[in-house]
Amino acid sequence: MSKIQVNTIELDYEDYGKGNVLLLLHGLGSTKKDWDAQVPFFSKTHRVITLDLRGHGDSTIPLNDYGVELMTEDVKQLLDQLNIKKATLVGFSMGGAIAFEMASKHPEYLENLVIVNSGPDFNDMGKIGEDLLRNRTEFLETKGIETLAKEISFNMFPEAHQIDMRNKFEERCKKNDYNAYFKSFVTLMDWGLGDRIKDIKTRTLVVASDMDYTPVSFKENYVKKLSNATLVVIKNSRHGVVIDQPEAFNIELEKFLKHE
Fold first, then answer.
1. Are the C-beta atoms of 222 and 194 separated by less than 8 Å?
2. What angle do CA 223, 76, 121 make, to 5 degrees?
3. What is the span of the domain harbouring residue 8?
4. Alpha helix locations (H) across the chain?
5. Helix, strand, or coil here: 70?
6. What is the pLDDT of residues 89-128, one digit of tens each?
7. Residue 169 domain-assigned?
8. I want to staple 50 with a disulfide (CB 3.0 to 4.6 A). Which of 9, 32, 133, 257 is the partner?
9. Is there a domain that residue 180 lies in?
């Protein structure tokens, strides 16, 4: 593990392999451990960088400074500090929001964009978004972070053979600082690209699970707004596709990268 100073905080990151850069961005309430099944696979052919986003894992936990825009600036500064001019950004869930924002604000840094079970407008998801914001906020306030971690982990990995991945995800999720998780969540739900999505020209892969929280049709709708995007659907997978179907995910990402 290494630390790097960005903005007013320190980010904890890991750096593997050589070649074109893959920067992997984890989901809300998790850490760079989301990518444990991708790092050994892709570091044979690429330089793979994983990091803990602000307020998560071993990175600094600020009191008030959260939001997709701020996390995006952290990512830009990380690339600058490491003297990386171009990278493929792979963003899972909240990480997808940051990857989208990076593609909109700083497209010159992006070789490719990969969005995994995420979307361009967390603030405009209709009833799904409204219910998520209300229910999760209420759950957090009444039952606390440990019970929420158990609930989220079970929803992501409910099958008997997934108990090991469920326990590991719950373990890292329940270590979240309550305030950091809450502020990361509410600022995420306030974020959206809006019409800016039409200006993204970066070559894009959108990965959807057939049993994600949002339906495949949700991803199909925003893929149509992107000028250079393809959609792949991973079968028998829920929200945490990089964990529950790593082989299928790695094959699709490898295929996409081979046609760079």
1. no
2. 30
3. 2-121+194-258
4. 39-42, 68-81, 94-105, 127-156, 163-173, 178-188, 216-223, 241-244, 246-258
5. helix
6. 999 999 999 999 999 999 999 999 999 999 999 999 888 8
7. no
8. 32
9. no
Within a domain: 159? no
Identify the bridge partners of residue 204 per DSSP, sorted by sequence position: 113, 229
Contacting residues for 258 by C-beta, under 8 A, at least 6 apart: none
CB of 165 closer than 8 Å to CB of 157: yes
Q: Which helix (H) or strand (E) holds 110?
A: strand 110-116
Phi, psi dihedral angles at 152 (to 5 degrees): -60, -45
Whether residue 42 is predicted with pLDDT greater than 70 in this model: the reply is yes
| Its pTM surpasses 0.85 | yes
> Mean pLDDT for the chain?
97
Q: How far apart are CA 215 and CA 218, in angstroms?
A: 5
Helices and strands: H and E segment counts in the chain: 9, 8
The residues near 118 (Cβ < 8 Å, ≥ 6 apart) are 91, 92, 93, 94, 95, 96, 97, 99, 100
